[in-house]
Amino acid sequence: MNYISALPLNQVRFTRGFLAERVRLVREVVIPYQWEALNDRVAGAEPSGCVHNFQVAAGEKPGKFYGLFWQDSDLAKWIEAAAYRLATHADAALEAELDRLIATLAKAQGADGYLNTYFQLVEPQNRWANLRDCHELYVAGHMIEAGVAHFQATGKRTLLAVVRKLADLIERTFGLGPGQIPGYCGHEEIELALVKLARATGETRYAQLAAYFIDQRGQSPNYLMEESRRRADPLPWHMYFDGLATLQAARPVRELTEPVGHAVRQMYLLAAMADLAHELGDASLVRSCHTLWSSLVSRHLYITGGVGSEPYGEKFTEPFDLPPDRAYSETCAAIGVIFFARRMLDLELRGEFADVMERSLYNNVLSGMSLDGTKFFYVNPLELIPAVAKRRYECHLVKTQRVGWFGCACCPPNVARLFASLADYVASLRPDGIALHLYAESDLRFTVGGAEVKFALRTDYPWTEEVAIEVRPAAPLEFTLQLRIPGWCRGATLAINGQSQPLAPVKGYAVLRRVWQPGDKIFLTLPMPIERVRADPRLSTAAGKVALQRGPVVYCLEEPDNGANLAAVTLPRTASLTARRDATLLGGCVVIEGQGVRVQPSPSLYTTTPPKTEALSLRAIPYGLWANRGEGEMRVWIQES
Amino acid sequence: MNYISALPLNQVRFTRGFLAERVRLVREVVIPYQWEALNDRVAGAEPSGCVHNFQVAAGEKPGKFYGLFWQDSDLAKWIEAAAYRLATHADAALEAELDRLIATLAKAQGADGYLNTYFQLVEPQNRWANLRDCHELYVAGHMIEAGVAHFQATGKRTLLAVVRKLADLIERTFGLGPGQIPGYCGHEEIELALVKLARATGETRYAQLAAYFIDQRGQSPNYLMEESRRRADPLPWHMYFDGLATLQAARPVRELTEPVGHAVRQMYLLAAMADLAHELGDASLVRSCHTLWSSLVSRHLYITGGVGSEPYGEKFTEPFDLPPDRAYSETCAAIGVIFFARRMLDLELRGEFADVMERSLYNNVLSGMSLDGTKFFYVNPLELIPAVAKRRYECHLVKTQRVGWFGCACCPPNVARLFASLADYVASLRPDGIALHLYAESDLRFTVGGAEVKFALRTDYPWTEEVAIEVRPAAPLEFTLQLRIPGWCRGATLAINGQSQPLAPVKGYAVLRRVWQPGDKIFLTLPMPIERVRADPRLSTAAGKVALQRGPVVYCLEEPDNGANLAAVTLPRTASLTARRDATLLGGCVVIEGQGVRVQPSPSLYTTTPPKTEALSLRAIPYGLWANRGEGEMRVWIQES
To answer: Which residues of A233-256 are buried (b: 16+ CB within 10 A; e: fewer)?
Structure first.
C-alpha cells in the first residue's frame, strides 16, 4: 500500500458522482489513451518513444533511443496507474499487456540490475556520472513505485523482482562506504519509492537507503558540487538564481525553513521526509516536515492548491510571490502537495492537511486534465490572456489549451496514477477505527479489530452540502469514526439516525465513538455558502481582488460566459451571488452567478474621467473545469468594485 | 541642427529651475563623469573599453578589443553630448580633449573610410557580413551624429571629415546597384544620422541613402533572411517570438500598423521615417508615421512615457500589455519616443506630439539618471519589490538601484546627449514666428523675418502653474507666437500685459498673432490639480488602480515614505489629496499627500473575513525622482478603495 493508513484500493469503490466520474475516466479512457501515446500511436501528439526505447534496449527491435534522459519514467508512472486499475477492476487483456511489457523490461535490464534505456542505449559509459542533471535515480524510483504497485495489485512478483534487483544495485552503489558513490539524485523520487519498497517487502534496508539519500543531501563537502567540478560542468541555466538550492541540495534538508527550488522535487522530498519521519520515528524529520508545511501553506500556496510560481526552473520564489498569469503551478507539483499532505495525515491526523489535499485535488490537479481525459495541462495559470501568453517569454511554457502529450510528459501519467489510486486519499485506518478525509460517493470496506465494517457513503459533494453514511458492521461494533469537518466550512451539523449530535471537532475531525449498529445512518451537512476569498495583502498581485469559492471548489471567470477582457469585469462588494446546479454545463457542475459590472474601454489609453460601466450577468465556473470550451481568457482573481 | 525647426543650441539658455538643473548636471557632472567611465577610470563600475579600443585601433597602444560589437557607439554618443556642451559653454580643455580624441579616431579609420574598432581589431574578415546582429551601421550612425554635432558646435570639420568618409564608404557599399550589398542594419540608427548629415552638409545624397535603407527594409527577397541562410545562422534567442519583426524587417516599413519588436530600434526607425517624410515630401511615409504614432500612444505607451514591455528582446508585445513590474521601458526607448515626437512636430504642429514628448522626458527619461548624475537605470519599471525582482527571471535585467555603468551602456550617454541638447525640444521656429513646446525657465533668442527677438521665460514649471514670458523684439514686430496648452491641462488662462485674453487653442496651441512691443508681458496659467488617472481597462494590470499625476509629472509611492508592502496601500475614492512643495526633498519637488489606508496582513494566506485596515499618511513623489534614497519598494499604480 502507498500510505500506511490507507485502505487497500479494492476496498473503496467509487460509485457515482464528480470524483467517481474522473476515476472512471482515468480507468476507461486515460489509461488506454496513454498506452497509445506511450506506443506513439496518437496522431498529432508529441511522440513518447517510451515503449520503443525498452524494446530496443531488450533487443526486440533495432532502433535508437528517443526522448529525454528521464523518458522511462513516463512509462513507469503509467504501469503504476495500470496496476492500480487492475487492483480494482480485473482486466485480463490489460494484465496480459502488462505481463508482456514487464517481460520486455526484464529483458532490457542489465545483469547487474541496471535499468535505464537512455544510459543503456546512449551513454553506457556515463552511468551515475551526472546525478545532478540526469535523473537516473529518479527514473529508478518511478520504476520501483511501478513494481510495488504491480505486485500489490496482482500478487505477481515479475516487476517487483526487476525493481528489487535495481534497488539492490543502487544499495551497493551508493553510500558512504568504501568504493561507494556518496551522492544522491538531483531530482528527488527514489527516496519515497524506497520507503514503499521497504513496506511492500518488509525489508527495512530499503528505508535505510532512503534515509541515506535524505541525510546525505546537501552535506559538506557537497557531492553535486564536487561532481560538477569533476565534469568541469558549470551550473545549468535553471540553477541561475538559486544554485544547488534549486535541487534542495545547498544544505542539509533538516536546515530548510522555506520550500525552495524546483517545486516537484521539493514536494517529492517532503513526501519522503514525512514517510521516513514516520517509518524511522525520526523526531528531527518530523519537526522539519511541520516547519516546511507551515511555510508552504502560509506563504507559497496558490489558492488552487498549486505551488511553484516561477516558470524559469519551475520553482518556488519569495514568500507571497504568487502571480496569477505566471503561475507555473505544474500539475505534478500539485500532485506532490497531495503526496506530502497525505503523509502528514499519517504523522498526525489534522484536518488542515486534508484541507490542502482537497484544495489541490479539486482545483489545480483537475485543471491538469480535460473533461474527456485525452488532453493535459502541464502549467496551470490562474489568469490567462491567450494573445499575451503567446507573446511574453515568461509565459512561453503556458499552453493556452490542453494538449495530447508533451515532449516532457511527466504530468499526464501522474494524473492517471493519482486518480487510479484515489482510494488512498479517502480515509485513514486508525487503531481504534477510521477517519474519513474526502467525501466522494463510495462503498467502503475495512476491518476494525478483526471485524469487517462497510460504509455506504452517498453524496453529491462537492456540489451539495449533504453527506449520508450508512454504517454496516456485520454485528454491533464499537469503534471511533472520525469525520473531517473542512476548514472552509462553518456551521456543520451532524445527525445520527435522525438525532442531532453536538459537533466539537478535534483538530478538524468530528470524533464519533460508539457501538455502531448495522444500518446506523449518519447525516452530515457541510454548509457551502459562496465565499469571497481575499489574499493576504502581501500577495501583491491579488490586492483589491477576490476569488470565489464554494466548498472546496475555487471558481474562475471564463470568456465563453463573460466575454473577453476579463480585467474589465468587476464584482461589486454588494452584489449578491447565487449558486446554480447546471446539469449540462461542463459535465454537470455548480456555477456561480450574479450581477457584475463591466468597465467600458476608455476614449484614450489614460484618462481622468471616471470610466463608463455597464451591468453584466457574471458567471463563474469551477477552476478545475476551465479551458474545456476552446481557447479564451480566464481569471481566478476578480476585481472588486 | 538636429531638428529643422529647432533653435540653435546657443540661442536657448536654461537659467534656473528643474530642467535647468538637469542640464547643468549633465554639463558639469555627467559629461565629465562619463568621460572617466569611457576611459575605465570609475572604480566599481563595469569597464567600458571605448577609448582604449580606439587607441589600440589607431596603433597608439598595444592591447585587445574590449566589449561588445557596438562598443564604439557609447563613445560616439558621448562625443555628441560633449559637442552640445561646447555649443553652449565654451570650454577650451574639453575642446582640446575632443581634438585629441578625434585625432585618434581619424588615425583609427581605415584608408577606405571604415571605422569600427570591433571589426577592425577582432573580425576584419567579416565586415558587413552580419548586418542582422552586429550593429555596424548602427555604430556608424552614432559616429555620424557625433561628427555633425561637433561640426555644428565648433565649426571644425575634423570629425565631420571622418564621418563623411565613412558615410561615403557606406554609400558605395550599400544599395541595389551592381556589386552593392542590398542590405540594411538590424538596429536602425544610420537612417536618422544620414538625414542629419544631409542637412549639415547640404548633400541630399545622404538623405537618399537613408531613404534607401528605409525603403529596402523588409522587402522580398528578405536580405537579412538570406544573409542568415548564407551564414547557416539560425535566428538568435531574442527573435524567438517575432522573427525578423523583432528588427522591423519582416515586411516593408510602410506596411507596419503597430509598433513591433525591439523598442529602441522601432523608435529610431520611426524618427528616421518622420525625418525623411519631411525631407523628401514622402506622403506614404507621412501616413505611416501618423498610423504608428496613433497606435503607439493609444495602445503601447506606459503612463511614464516609456515603451517596450517585454524584457526578452526589449520589445513591444500585444496592445495594452503594459505590466508595471515587467516594464522594460528602457531609458533609450523613451528617448526614442522623444526623438519621434519632436520630428512629428516638424511634420505637423500638434500639441499631442509635445504632450508625449513632455511625458517621456519628465518621467521615464528622468528616472534613467540619479539626482547626482552618476548612476543610471537602463530598465525603468513602474513597480518594484526588490526581493521579488531579484528572484524572478523576467525581472533579471531590472536593477533595484541605479548603477554607475553598464556592460551594454547605451543609456547613460543617451541621457547625456538628450539633456545637453534639450534646447532642441523647447520650441519650433515657424515661417511666421515661433511655437513654444516646453516651459522651462530660459532665455531664448531667435529671428523672425530677419529681425531678432528675445524671450525671457520665467517659471517654476513643472511645480507651479504660472509661466511668465517677456517678449523683447528690438523694435515692434508682428509675428505669431504659439503657446502649447498641454493636453493634461483644463482651464488654462492667458493674459497679455495684464489683460485677460480669450483662449481657443488650435491643435493644442494658443495662437497669438500681433505686433509685439518690446517688454510685452505674457502670463500663462496652466492649472495643475492632482489628477487620478485611470488606464483603459484593456490595460489589465492597472484595473482597479489609479496613478497620480500633477501637470506633466507622474507620481509613485516609495517605501521610505509609505513603508514596505505597497500593494497593501490603498487610496480611498473620497480621499482628498494635497500638493506640497518640499524644498529639501529630492532636490526640491512637489509631493502629493493624503489619507490612505493600509490593509493589515491576514491571519492566513487566504481568508474570508474582511481585512483589517489602518489609516496611513500617504505620500507620493515624482516618479522621475524615485530610487534616490536607497533600495526599496515603489509603485506607480495604486489600488483604489
So the answer is: eebeebbebbebbbbbbbbbbbeb
Contacts A–B by Cβ distance under 8 A? 177
Q: Which residues contact B245 (CB under 8 A, 6 or more apart)?
A: B251, B260, B261
- What are the residue ranges spanned by the domains of chain A? 9-425, 428-525, 530-640
Mean pLDDT of successive 10-residue stretches along chain A, which has 641 residues: 82 95 94 93 88 97 94 95 96 96 98 98 96 97 98 97 98 98 98 97 97 98 95 85 94 96 98 96 96 98 97 94 96 98 97 98 97 93 96 91 83 92 96 96 95 96 97 96 97 97 96 97 98 96 96 98 96 96 96 97 93 95 98 97 90
Whole-number pLDDT of residue A105: 98
The shortest C-alpha distance from B184 to chain A (Å) reads: 26
Residue of A nearest to B490 (CA): A608
Its ipTM equals 0.94
Cβ–Cβ under 8 Å, residues A49 and A73: no
C-alpha–C-alpha distance, residues A424 and A461, integer Å: 18
Q: What is the pLDDT of residues A145-168, one digit of tens each?
A: 999 999 999 999 999 999 999 999
How many CB atoms are closer than 10 A to CB B383? 22
C-alpha distance from A186 to closest chain B C-alpha (Å): 21
d(CA A469, CA A447): 17
Q: Cα dist. A292→A268, A279, A296, B1 in Å?
A: 13, 19, 6, 65
pLDDT of residue A419: 96
Q: What share of chain B is helix, strand, coil (3-state, %, to 5)?
A: 40, 20, 40
Q: Of A318, A393, A536, which is closest to B391 when you measure between CB atoms?
A: A318
CA angle (B366, B316, B251) in 5-degree steps: 130
Instruction: Name the residue among A393, A535, A567 with its Cβ closest to that of B537.
Output: A567
Determine which helix (DSSP H) or strand (DSSP E) holds A31, and give its type and residue range.
helix A31-38
pTM (2 d.p.): 0.94
User: Starting at the edge strand that comes first in sequence, how are the strands of the sheet with A493-496 ordered?
Assistant: A12-14, A442-448, A451-459, A466-473, A520-525, A493-496, A499-501
B 574-593: CB under 8 A from A: none
pLDDT for A433 equals 96
Question: How many CB atoms within 10 Å of residue B89?
Answer: 15
CA distances from B211 to B171, B196, B204, B252 (A): 12, 13, 10, 12
Nearest to B485 by CA among B528, B432, B443, B431: B528
Interface check A321 vs B, CB under 8 A:
yes
Q: B311 vs A393: CB contact, 8 Å cut-off?
A: yes
User: Where in B449-562 does DSSP place strands (E)?
Assistant: 451-459, 466-473, 477-484, 493-496, 499-501, 509-516, 520-525, 530-535, 545-550, 553-558
CATH 1.50.10.20 fits A9-425, yes or no: yes
CA nearest neighbour of A193 among A112, A268, A88, A110: A268
User: Residue A461 corresponds to which amino acid?
Assistant: Y
Q: Could you confirm whether domain B428-525 is CATH 1.10.10?
A: no
Q: How far is CA A613 from CA A86, A571, A601, A610, A634, in A?
A: 57, 12, 9, 9, 20
